[in-house]
Structure formats: C-alpha cells, structure tokens
TrEMBL record:
Source organism superkingdom: Bacteria
Taxonomic classification: Bacteria, Bacillati, Actinomycetota, Actinomycetes, Mycobacteriales
InterPro entries per UniProt: Polyketide_cyclase/dehydratase (IPR019587), START-like_dom_sf (IPR023393)
Name recorded for this polypeptide: Polyketide cyclase
SUPFAM superfamilies with a match to the protein in the record: Bet v1-like (SSF55961)
Gene3D superfamilies assigned to the protein according to its UniProt record, in alphabetical order: 3.30.530.20
Cross-referenced Pfam families: Polyketide_cyc2 (PF10604)
Length: 147
C-alpha cells in the first residue's frame, strides 16, 4: 500500500516564472521551509541533494536522483530504492499553463514498498507539513516574481 501526498495549486504567475522559482535551487533558503537548501544536476540520472527540515529544527541531508525533466513544465526525482524494494519514493512536480499569466502547479509524492506503511505512519505529519510548506512557499515565490 502506497503512502501519497498530493497538492494542486493555482498560481498567479506564468509557467516560465513558476519554473524559474522551482529550478533556482540557490534561492531555496529564501522561500522553501522544507528543503531549506538544495543543489541539483537537473538532468535524468543527475543528483538533487537537499537539506530537509523533516523534524525542525533538526536538518537532514536527502540525496535523490532525477528521473525525468520536461524543460519548463516539470521534473521528477526518486530516492535510491532500499534493498529488496523495501522502500522507494517518487516526487513529481508539474506546471500547467492556464493562460492569462496563470499556472497550475501539481506536486505528487509517493512512497511504495513493504516499509511504506510504517515510514508513512511514523513520518506522515512531518511529511504533510513539509510538502505543504514547500508548495505554499513556491506559490508565494512565483507570485512575487510575477509582480
């Protein structure tokens, strides 16, 4: 059984500015309360390394790998699966042009594998808070860029 966190938000900014905010990894400390620092080789197989506030104020380093990039429209990344497929994750982020300088941002996070119910149960509140803060921060950042 998978553990899933989904967010869909409309943003008063064109897709190019949402993409700019999402991929300006050096600026993450300014707006992202969950991934408070990030570096990324934004190409399939490249690494994304984040300092994550999963249980603030403690930070942990999370290194994942880019699965796909659709320039200007989104990207996804996944953790290195645990041995035997016990735990795997995917984070997919996409941007849809709504016209009139507006966008829809969709974030999907999923944990799968036999350990996913346990990890999900233990970290559910922290993960939901973290991803909600991440999405809210992205909306604010993109809308600031659009002003």
């Amino acid at each position: 059984m998978a553990f899933v966190i989904d967010h869909t938000r409309e943003i008063a900014a064109p897709p190019a500015l949402v993409w700019q905010a999402l991929t300006d990894f050096d600026a993450y400390p300014q707006w992202n309360p969950f991934a408070v620092a990030a570096t990324c080789d934004l190409r399939p197989g490249g690494a994304i390394t984040m300092r994550v506030a999963l249980r603030p104020p403690k930070l942990m380093t999370q290194r994942e790998f880019i699965v796909a990039v659709d320039e200007g429209r989104g990207f996804s990344y996944a953790m290195k699966p645990a041995p035997g497929g016990l735990l795997r994750s995917i984070r997919e982020q996409s941007i849809v042009d709504l016209g009139d300088g507006r966008s829809r941002y969709v974030s999907h996070f999923q944990l799968d594998g036999p350990l996913s119910p346990v990890v999900g149960a233990v970290l559910a509140g922290n993960l939901r808070r973290g991803f909600t803060g991440n999405v809210d921060g992205l909306v604010r950042r993109a809308e600031e860029l659009a002003r």
